[in-house]
Amino acid sequence: MGGALLSGVVSVLSGCGPQPLIVEAGGAQVGSASGEPTANTNTNANTRAPLMVAGSAPPRQIAAGPLDCGGQEQFALGGRGYCINRTELPFADADDACRSMRGHLVTIAAREEQEALRARFAPAWTPQGPLWIGLVEPFREGDWRWVTGEAARFQAFGAGEPNDLGGEDCGEWSATDGAWNDVNCFLGRPYICEGSVAARKGVASQLGCGQDGQRFTAGSKDLCAHTGFLPFAEAQASCQKAGGTLAVIRSAAENSDMQRAFGPKIGAVGAVWIGISDQEQEGRFSWTTGEAADFTSWSSGEPNNDGSNEDCGTWLTSTGAWNDVPCDARLWSLCEGSL
Questions:
Q1: Which of 135, 170, 241, 304 sits at a 20 to 30 Å CA gap from 108?
Q2: Residue 258's closest CA among 315, 198, 207, 303?
Q3: Radius of gyration of the chain (CA)
Q4: Please, where in the chain does CATH 3.10.100.10 lie?
Q5: Angle 39-43-49 from CA coordinates, rounded to 5°
């Protein structure tokens, strides 16, 4: 969930005078006082330079290393670390505090990720109110983005939201029901920080296999094949609860390594869930981590979206090829962690 950090986001609030000019960190104008991007705007959030509001302080650089919660409540999920901060701060101050811990306000790339976070976090939070997540509207109304610079393709706003009531440009999250809301960025809220976790060489990064899992190693991946038959969303939530995520395959070498290590052991299974889907936009496949699927290994003629409802990806254990199937199919799942 990395990317170029947004800064000065609190300065784009409505209701506090004219909207300020938004510029790239290098000084190039990318937005006007009306909130509209200029002709020179780079619309690819993943390649845009760090953003700052003219006249504001530059963003705090995140130091290398794992998230340091500094004694705050913390937990790990899906290979990421999280800090729960109950001190109520305005949005920009909360994000700055997260950066000082080598992280950023939490980003949520998919519904499965949100539900796994709620399952892990909400019981200890109830009945407290909403928290800041790293969601902001820095350019123009309706253009929601994460503080990491990525467009918020997955959204979970509550009924009637976002409504921009009186100038509401930052996002809060109700962990009790999962609903998002747009609010004034100057309000104080508790917040959740997200960052990397410390890697322990030769030790699985908190990935649990459980009694129904078969563990194996392929390259730098610590993998568990879970034999419970689950639909895609439940499989991803199960992987996250175990400390990992549905497997992400970024290259032909990774795909081959996994097939050699795993396929011969339980090839008769046929297909298992991996973390790829196009649920958010038909034909645009991405991983449950939020990464674009730049490498793919589809079987011949796939993905074909047969029946117009095949939006989730499986991995064929005998060949290493992929196929798209309905997300409510019940299959084994392939979870991964890091070594």
A1: 304
A2: 315
A3: 21
A4: 59-196, 213-338
A5: 95
Which secondary-structure segment (H or E) carries 91? helix 91-100
Token pair in block for residue 187: 């309000």
| Tens digit of pLDDT at every position of the chain (339 positions) | 333 333 333 333 333 333 322 323 333 333 333 333 333 333 333 333 333 322 334 556 777 778 888 878 887 766 678 888 989 999 989 999 999 999 999 998 888 778 878 877 777 676 678 999 999 988 788 889 988 888 888 899 999 999 988 888 899 999 888 899 999 989 999 999 998 766 444 334 567 777 667 777 776 678 888 888 899 999 998 888 888 889 999 888 888 888 777 755 555 567 899 999 999 889 999 998 888 898 999 999 999 999 889 999 999 887 889 999 999 999 989 998 765
Question: At residue 111, what is the residue type?
Answer: R
Following DSSP, what letter does each residue of 272-332 receive, concatenated? EEEEEE-SSSTT--EETTS-B--S--BPTT----GGG-EEEEEEETTT--EEEEETT--EE
Cα gap 34→182, rounded to integer Å: 20
> Model pTM?
0.50
Q: Which of 244, 4, 258 is nearest to 112 (CA)?
A: 244
Give the CATH architecture of domain 59-196: Roll (3.10)
* DSSP assignment letter at 169: -
How many beta carbons lie within 10 A of that of residue 142, not counting itself? Answer: 9
Closest CA to 175 of 292, 261, 73, 68: 73
> Hey, what are 39's tokens?
């002709």
At the top level of CATH, which class does the domain 213-338 belong to? alpha beta
